[in-house]
Amino acid sequence: MRNTELAQLFREVALYLEMQDEPFKPRAYEKVAYALEALEEPVTEVYKRGGVKGLREIPGVGQAIAEKIEEIIQTGKLRYYEELKREVPVDVRGLTAIEGVGPKSVKVLYEKLGVKEVSDLEQIARAGKIRNLPHFGEKMEQKILKGIEFLKQGSGRFPLGSVLPLITEIETRLRGLAEVSDVVVAGSMRRRKETVGDADILATSQRPEKVMDFFVSMPEVMHVHGKGQTKTMIKLKNGMDVDLRVVTRESFGAALNYFTGSKDHNVALRRIAQEKGLKLNEYGLFRGSKPIAGKTEEEIYKALGLSFIPPEIREDQGEIEAAKKGELPDLVGYQDLRGDLQTQTTWTDGANSIEEMIEEAKRLGLEYIAITDHTKGLAMTGGSDEKKLLKQMAEIDKINQSLKGFTVLKGAEVNINKDGTLDIKDEVLAQLDVVGIAVHSHFNLPRREMTERIVKAMRNSHADILFHPTGRVIQKREPYDVDMDAIIRTAKETGTALEIDAYPDRLDLKDEHIRKAVEAGVKLVIDSDAHSVNHIRFLEFGVAQARRGWAGKKDVINTRPLKEFLRCLKQATAANK
Ligand code: DGT
Ligand code: CA
Ligand code: CA
Ligand code: ZN
User: Fold this and answer.
1) Residue identifier of the C-alpha nearest atom 20 of ligand 1
2) Domain 339-576 class in CATH
3) Which residue from 12, 55, 217, 317 has the least number of CB within 10 angstroms?
């Protein structure tokens, strides 16, 4: 069983326990799920090496859970889970994925109306049967139908972060074959789109049949759609299709360019080729029948009179005109970040201690990290009040004394109340290094009210960063209704930075908003929103998102050394006025 499957199982256990109104256990299981999900080593390896004792070294895993993991590894099953499932035999994960449907509603819906899966729910909602349930009502019924509709739209696509690790692993395996010389993942994955439909892998080889034999016999393969010498198409057990194409070395660059897309970018390139009396296709760039470029992408762009266009911005959104004039932005790089600015710890709903987060941040080459646990308005996470925050600050001061070449910043993810005030007093906010503010409640306010609420919070002189500005969760929750132009204007006016939350199902801001913010000269930060040490690596998805929004290194303030970064924050600017 893979780590992600194990994590899903525990997450389901958490949902069942929440259904039963268990107070603390659900969060414990959720934390373990987080920890397993992005654990680099397969948990089966951890177990093989160290047994139950080894498992207990995984953050959040105590004796009881370690034994459950052992049971799963040994028997492929978990009795505890099966018992829970027997009591309420429903697709709890599918149902709770619908916005507004929590585990407790699932129980009521099952007991009163026999709802077992999403299709049942859709049927009875359409039949108008939900409105009569106690605590549901007609508004809830509409909301459920809307939620189901939203899920359907996104189905068939995968959040990049949920599939990239596996595809990268497959890429590495292919690269390791003696028969393969080049491999690269093209398509929307190379462009680092937020969600991807399938994976498109290209390779060069003298012995394609060997490569294809290997490809179709990988353990993750569920189905082979078609197998040939130049193209093989499979479906993985996670439901995603993967195409592998073997091309010649002479046309590798042309194929890479073609299969990276986007389609619109390709069409625009082909038009430029035509204007020059040339022909561009996946085999190369030709004058008549004579190839003039094709081995690399660089030589193709050059022959077309364009500077090289990074894959993340190949969307025909002005990049070709900019490349023609040599005015492409110098995009922020994957190695440019020096600090992480949104992280949660065991002080609230994170899975790891401050010390563990520091260790991982250091390992990844960062120089500073802000600890931004939740505040009291988010009671379910055990959010801090003023007293707890002050205690954590003292703790961080102590930790900093023992650190060399690395700094922990005192921060918080402060709730924006319904009326735009913050849920922590100003005199305490003033003592924090980094104040992130965020909407975590009342998601359904009318546009004007929501906009005014956030604008008011941004006007607080202690508020440094607006976290996940639109509140969307990819494939799960729509952004709240807010006037982003007004938010961007206010950011510029007040000096508040806007966050690019790198957590793979948030990626909030999204590309078009980033681009507007950059054009307006607004400060940006990229952070991981880590709830466990394994999430700090998600920063790369935030960088990808920033690049898709044409952000340069200069636009992202946590690319700067600590002192300079701190000087860029609004609080510092306000204090020096
Ligand atoms: P996805 O898979 O939906 O996330 O998006 P892509 O961009 O990976 O699309 P996919 O897998 O259908 O095709 C891969 C690339 O191949 C695409 O980005 C551009 C190229 N391509 C596919 N079909 C066409 C086409 O009809 N015309 C042109 N010019 N290019 C195409
Ligand atoms: Ca694709
Ligand atoms: Ca494809
Ligand atoms: Zn959070």
Assistant:
1) 259
2) alpha beta
3) 217
Residue 70 and residue 55 in contact, taking contact as beta carbons nearer than 8 Å: yes
Q: Report how far ligand 3's centroid is from the alpha carbon of 198 (Å).
A: 5
Whose alpha carbon is nearest atom 15 of ligand 1?
259
129-136 contact pairs (CB < 8 A, 24+): 133/108, 133/109, 134/108, 135/108, 136/105, 136/108
**In the chain, which residues fall in CATH 3.30.210.10?**
252-325
| Intervals of CATH 3.20.20.140 along the chain | 339-576
Ligand 1 pocket mutation, candidates 188, 234, 245, 272, criterion most atoms within 8 A of CB: 188
Burial of 547 (0-12, 13-18, 19+ CB in 10 A): buried
**Secondary structure (3-state) at 517:** helix
β partners of residue 231: 245
How many Cα atoms are found within 13 Å in the side-chain-facing hemisphere of 484? 20
**What is the Cα–Cα distance from 170 to 175, expressed in whole angstroms?**
9
Q: Which residues pair with 223 in a beta bridge?
A: 235
305 Cβ neighbours under 8 A, 6+ residues apart: 272, 276, 324
Residue by residue, pLDDT tens for the chain (577 residues) are 788 889 999 999 999 999 999 888 998 898 898 888 767 788 999 999 999 999 999 888 999 999 999 999 999 999 999 999 999 999 999 899 888 899 999 999 999 999 999 999 999 999 999 998 988 889 999 999 988 988 877 677 999 999 999 999 999 999 999 999 999 999 999 999 999 999 999 999 999 999 999 999 999 998 888 888 999 999 998 889 999 999 999 999 999 999 999 999 999 999 999 999 999 999 999 999 999 999 999 999 999 999 999 999 999 999 999 999 999 999 999 999 999 999 999 999 999 999 999 999 999 999 999 999 999 988 778 899 999 999 999 999 999 999 999 999 999 999 999 999 999 999 999 999 999 999 999 999 999 999 999 999 999 999 999 999 999 999 888 999 999 999 999 999 999 999 999 999 999 999 999 999 999 999 999 999 999 999 999 999 999 999 999 999 999 999 999 999 999 999 887 776 5
Q: CA triplet 532, 537, 541: central angle to 5 degrees?
A: 120
Q: How many CB atoms lie within 10 A of CB 156?
A: 12
Burial environment of residue 142 by CB neighbours within 10 A (0 to 12, 13 to 18, 19 or more) = middle
User: Phi and psi (nearest 5°) for 98?
Assistant: -80, 130
- pTM assigned to the model: 0.83
* β pairing state of 158-159 and 524-527: unpaired
Query: How remote is the CA of residue 203 from the centroid of ligand 4, in Å?
Result: 40
CATH of region 158-246: 3.30.460.10
**Integer Cα distance of 83 and 11 in angstroms:** 15
Q: Is the dihedral of CA 461, 463, 464, 468 positive or negative?
A: negative
| d(CA 28, ligand 2 centre) in Å | 37
Domain with CATH 3.30.460.10 in the chain: 158-246
